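Single-chain item
Fold in token form
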Amino acid sequence: MNGIGAYQDNAVTTQSRGRLIVLLYEGAIKFLKLAINELQAGNNQEKGKYITKAQDIINELNAVLDMEAGGEIASNLRKLYLFMNQRLSEANIKRDPQMIREVITLMEELNKSWKAISG
């Protein structure tokens, strides 16, 4: 393994759970912004690839929710994640950058909250 890869692996494995969630949000936001750029450039295949990457992150965030311990908050997050995925599917089909921006806005708001929680 090269030095950069080892550093990245170590950086991820030593982060707190809250910080990892922040990193996941940031990754999804980055992919969605790239999707908009590709959409505007007319690169529909690349746009779809980046939307799918963001959806994979959202699916992972949804999968790790602890519904018992998280109670109403976890339930509300699950609803938001499902809404975001549905919206991104529609955006991908309709080639609508505004729908992608709506999801980015939601993710940025959630990310702010996680940053505040995780320090």
In short: The CA atoms of residues 30 and 54 lie 8 Å apart.
